[in-house]
Amino acid sequence: MKAIRIPLIVLSLASAPVFAADADLSLTNDSVKGQVNFFDTNSEIQVGTGYTYHEGSRHIGNLDFHAQGRTALGNLPTTAGLGLRAIGWDDDDVDGGAVALGGFATVNIPDVPGLSFTGGLHYAPSILSFGDSDEMTSLELRASYRVIRNAELFAGYRYLNTDFDGRGDLNLDEGVMAGMKIFF
């Protein structure tokens, strides 16, 4: 990572509380990701942006737009969203991206206050992909525990894969992750 990008990332994360509902930071063995969401779970829309640095000079950015609402799975309170995730990536001589359609759901467990499970899946066929990407799949699964009213810790699995322009699959980011989310 070039030294000039570090102050820009720090400045972006420091200014996040002014405009954001939450910000999270997650780590895998090979990557670090920061995500800022601009509306809370009571809003009817969710807009967010994120940046991932993957070891080996791979940069991945995302912009999310979802309609969201509260529902229930069985008797479990759930927040669900449907929409799109625009993803762009750059890795030295190759780059690409896609506009993936999909959604997410966060299920709260009332018997264990603070415990929740989140899953998100987005997929872009080749018609919605560009550059060296032919299609793209983004999957994220999390188990979270809210330690205090405005902060939670989480662990899970992240998978971001693209069909690399007819030359096979390329895992842009994959691994077990851990992180924290701060609510403003």
Automatic annotation (TrEMBL):
The alphabetical list of record keywords is: Signal
Query: Which InterPro entries is this protein grouped with?
Result: YfaZ
Leader sequence range is: 1-20
State a single Pfam family of this protein.
YfaZ
Protein name per Swiss-Prot or TrEMBL = Outer membrane beta-barrel protein
Name its species: Marinobacter orientalis
